[in-house]
Design goal:
The structure holds two protein chains of two kinds. By secondary structure, chain A is α+β, with helices and mostly antiparallel strands. Chain A contains seven helices and 14 strands. Chain A starts with 15 loop residues before the first strand and ends in a 23-residue tail after the last strand. At the A-B interface, α3, β3 and α7 of A face α2, α5, α7, α8 and β4 of B. Bound molecules: protoporphyrin IX containing FE and FE2/S2 (inorganic) cluster (FES). Chain A: This is Cytochrome bc1 complex Rieske iron-sulfur subunit.
Chain lengths: ~350, ~550
């Protein structure tokens, strides 16, 4: 029923708006290519030129596959990538521009009007549809048999319940995982080796100079079952600040060693590593959303979206002179979670 | 069924197909379907073509990508990472980039196509909004379009999290934090999503099945619905000579539109090839494998996720509070609420606008944005609100650039979060009204011709050329929605809701510039008689 009107009828369906009448489709103004055979031929050649350029691009792509075979250096890989890009751009753009030019200049440019059809069915359609639905209702008896209907609805409604069960094993329950880390009494602080695994490197108090910040992990982390999961909770930043500058809470007096303090590196906002330490101000800045923590005041939040201070790891020096944890973090690390205040972290 | 037997190979093939699939009806139905030609109608096409390219390039990537988080030590050709511990996912992304010839190119193309896909979708949606193309009968397709944007964001996020690099790993960490902030069940949801503690060893393979199967399947299905609606409703069109509510004017699919659209597809493909060859996006090799401890400054997600990240930066920490020791981390999960607000607001707008203006009619002729100042202003307010959040995601970089303190920068974003949309609303509305007045001027007095004439009594005036009929129609043939005061319902009483509607409608629609009417125009021409007369004295046989 649709799209029968293939030809423009000038001035069809004129209607008035604000008293003005629709002037109807304007006459088609012929293009140069419509009237001048010479222009038409030039354009034809131009378009063919684009298609030829495309072929050159394709060939260039193939050539660069061999000509610019990378030798495993970054520069050579990028050079080949660039040459591929050049070839593909020409190949694709050539076809694209050629086709568009063809459509714009040589294919008929007359605008055509097509009638719209009403969106809704006509009255007869609607009546027939209603009749079919009513018939289905009667024949199935869905309205007359409430027992069947209701039990069916109930059956379908509870049928997905087992899915909840089988999805149960997507993950274990949290248990006490949110309240424990690898830190504990006597666990030595080690320098974070970054991506390259190596033997634990312990830290002596005198290695930590004033103004320095050391990225720290617990000893033995790499031997644990899931080192990254452990690191995501246990990463610590160790800083040494002139004790005169620290406003230490009397209850936490012995949590540091001569101005060396250790704080969780996991932001209490949504968990990014708080890795930027400003030496002058003793502020820690989270690069993700710029929460700012004041190291001189037990890492209170002084700006940004985080609410809780970074948990402090109480540290001491062991008999061999290495820095060790006194215990696990006194409060959970990382982002806030619902059960956060429901239990104590382990003293052990 | 044809009357003559085909003799050529093409003819025979055509007959073979026809007798088996009845292709003639398709050609008849769609072959001359009309596409209006205006650049703003190509935005949807850009989105569609980018999606096609995403499917093609993405399929290529699946042949080598290993969605696994088992640990390996890198021994590939990229020297800076040799000996580094990383997941198989990250290692295989490096392999695609450095060892599969053309792999880097296709990876780049996949990512660039994703960026373009989302940009085209967003701008396309803006054109629908600002022209009022969402009005009846297209409200449902507007909703379908919003679903597409949400799915696109999902596709993008699940995609760029796959390589398991430092940047995307931090993105996942943020998702973990947001999940954990959900009251009551958050911790459990996080454990179920990550298969235990963050980051665990499951998330990449889970994202993978979402990214290459579930989301693309949904996208393809929803795109299909979207296009079926477009065909069924036919296109809207701009006001213009010969354009009516009952027709659609443009070019037929065969051959004009097919040639142009086909060409356009290749141009988009070419553009992506150009970007992929010469501009690097997501150089995961520079970021390193995911590790929960290091992070680089200036971390940012792909642009279409940025606004949610920006919101997380704007909201202050005091919005987290505790009830009986249980946290309500509004500072965190509100990012989800903000997304709900944006998409929810977009979703209900067509219905709100119809309700406010009591205009439930079908509309196939678009509004020029200035001719619906209220809608345009509301849209501008939304855009500013969005852009402010988006800019906030680069607050740290901007602070460095403008030599400002980061905190001041965030304060500005906080103020603009509330004030920006209001200012945008007021300014845009005024600008629209001013533009409408200018249109009135032009319609009533013609275009400025740049020619100065001297009247007999010595006064100088610029001669104005009257508009031609077609242009006049394009400018003058619009309705200006006028505020409808509260009307009594069928029971003869004015309901409370109706009163509220009238109040709101009055606030939004009271200021308006009435469109020029024919009689006004005639009266204006009459006043110009003097000028016209002098022109006739001066020139002979000039244009009417
Ligand atoms: C059938 C469709 C698709 C398939 C089979 C597919 C497949 C893939 C694969 C295997 C990867 C990982 C490889 C890599 O990171 O290099 C990937 C990455 C990605 N995908 Fe897709 N994808 C599809 C659709 C999409 C869509 C619709 C979007 C976006 C809106 C998208 C956005 C991304 C992004 C941003 C990446 C990251 C690329 C990077 O590493 O730089 N993908 N996709
Ligand atoms: S994660 Fe640190 S501020 Fe958001």
């Amino acid at each position: 029923m649709t799209s029968k009107q293939h030809t423009a009828e000038h001035g069809t369906q004129l209607e008035q708006v604000n008293g003005f009448t629709n002037p109807g489709l304007p006459e088609h103004t012929p293009r140069l290519t419509d009237i001048s055979p010479a222009a038409e031929r030039t354009t034809e050649r131009q378009i063919a030129g684009w298609f030829i350029l495309s072929m050159i691009g394709t060939i260039w792509f193939i050539v660069s596959y061999f000509l610019f075979a990378p030798d495993e250096t970054m520069a050579s890989i990028q050079l080949q990538n660039m040459m591929f890009g050049l070839g593909a751009t020409l190949a694709l753009f050539g076809i694209g521009v050629g086709l568009v030019l063809w459509g714009k200049t040589l294919v008929s440019g007359t605008e055509v009007a097509e009638d719209r059809h009403p969106i809704e069915g006509n009255e007869e359609d609607q009546a027939v549809a209603l009749e079919i639905l009513n018939q289905a209702k009667d024949e199935s008896g869905i309205a007359r048999r409430p027992l069947l209907r209701n039990t069916l609805i109930a059956a379908v409604a509870i049928a997905p319940l087992p899915a909840i069960l089988v999805f149960r094993d997507l993950g274990p329950l949290p248990g006490d995982k949110m309240f424990t880390t690898l830190w504990g009494p006597g666990v030595r602080l080690c320098q974070d080796p970054g991506g390259v695994p190596r033997e634990d490197r312990f830290i002596r108090a005198e290695d930590v100079t004033i103004g320095s910040a050391v990225h720290v992990i617990p000893e033995g982390m790499h031997e644990s079952e899931h080192p990254l999961d452990e690191k995501a909770k246990a990463a610590v930043l160790l800083m040494r600040i002139d004790p005169k500058e620290l406003n230490t809470d009397p209850a936490k007096e012995d949590w540091g060693v001569d101005g060396i303090v250790a704080y969780s590196k996991i932001c209490t906002h949504v968990g990014c590593p708080v890795a930027l330490y400003e030496h002058q101000t003793h502020h820690l800045l989270c690069p993700c959303h710029q929460s700012t923590f004041d190291v001189t005041n037990h890492c209170e939040v002084i700006f940004g979206p985080a609410k809780r201070p970074l948990p402090q790891l109480p540290i001491a020096v062991d008999s061999e002179g290495y820095l060790v944890a006194q215990r696990d973090f006194p409060e959970p690390v990382g982002p806030t979670f619902w059960e956060i205040n429901t239990r104590e972290t382990s003293e052990q | 069924m044809s009357t003559t037997q085909p003799t050529t190979a093409v003819g025979k093939a055509a007959l073979f197909t026809e007798n088996r699939v009845g292709a003639s009806r398709l050609v008849k139905e769609f072959g001359r379907k009309i596409f209006p030609h205006h650049w703003s109608f190509m935005l949807g096409e850009v989105a569609l073509y980018s999606f096609v390219i995403l499917v093609l390039t993405g399929t290529f990537l699946t042949f080598w990508f290993k969605p696994a988080m088992g640990h390996t030590i890198y021994e590939g050709p990229f020297v800076p990472l040799q000996g580094v511990e990383m997941s198989e996912a990250y290692a295989s992304t490096l392999a695609i980039s450095f060892e599969i010839r053309g792999g880097l190119f296709i990876r780049q193309m996949h990512h660039w196509a994703a960026l373009l896909f989302m940009a085209a979708l967003s701008i396309h949606a803006m054109r629908i909004f600002f022209t009022g193309a969402f009005r009846r009968p297209r409200e449902v397709n507007w909703l379908v379009g919003i679903v597409l944007i949400v799915l696109g964001m999902g596709a993008g996020f699940t995609g760029y999290s796959l390589p398991d690099d430092l940047l995307s790993g931090n993105g996942l960490r943020i998702i973990d934090g947001i999940l954990k902030a959900i009251p009551l069940v958050g911790t459990y949801i996080s454990f179920f999503v990550f298969g235990g503690e963050f980051p665990g060893v499951d998330i990449v393979s889970r994202l993978y099945s979402l990214h290459i199967m579930v989301v693309p399947a949904l996208l393809i299905a929803v795109i299909a619905v979207h296009l079926i609606f477009v065909v069924y409703h036919k296109h809207t069109q701009w006001p213009g000579a010969g354009h009516t509510e009952k027709n659609v004017v443009g070019e037929p699919v065969l051959p004009t539109f097919a040639a142009k659209a086909g060409g356009f597809f290749f141009m988009i493909f070419g553009l992506l090839a150009l970007l992929s060859g010469f501009f690097t996006t997501n150089p995961v090799w520079n970021y390193g494998p995911y590790d929960p401890s290091p992070v680089s400054a200036g971390t940012q997600p792909d642009w279409y996720i940025g606004w949610m990240d920006g919101f997380l930066r704007i909201i202050p920490g005091w919005t987290e509070f505790y009830i009986f020791g249980y946290p309500i981390s509004f500072n965190i999960f509100s990012s989800v609420l903000v997304a709900g607000l944006l998409f929810g607001g977009l979703a209900i707008w067509p219905f709100v606008e119809a309700w406010l203006t009591k205009d439930y009619r079908e509309h196939h002729i678009l509004d020029r944005p200035r001719n619906n100042p209220t809608r345009t202003a509301v849209g501008a307010a939304g855009v500013v609100w969005y852009l402010n959040m988006w800019a906030a995601a680069s607050g740290d970089l901007m602070a460095v650039f403008f030599h400002m303190s980061l905190n001041d920068m965030i304060y500005i974003f906080r103020v603009l979060f509330f004030l920006g949309p209001v200012i945008a609303y007021i300014v845009t509305k005024r600008v629209c009204l001013a533009l409408q007045r200018k249109d009135r001027e032009i319609i009533l007095h013609g275009r400025e011709s740049g020619q100065i004439i001297r009247l007999p009594h010595g006064e100088f005036q610029e001669r104005h050329k009257p508009l031609n009929e077609d242009r006049l129609w394009s400018l003058a043939s619009f309705e200006s929605p006028q505020y409808i005061p509260a009307e009594p319902g069928p029971d003869g009483k004015i309901s409370k809701i109706e009163k509220r509607r009238a109040k709101l409608a009055r606030f939004f629609y009271e200021d308006r510039v009435a469109p020029v009417t024919k009689s006004e125009l005639e009266a204006a021409h009459h006043d110009h008689g003097e000028v016209e007369q002098s022109r006739k004295d001066e020139l002979t046989g000039s244009q009417q």
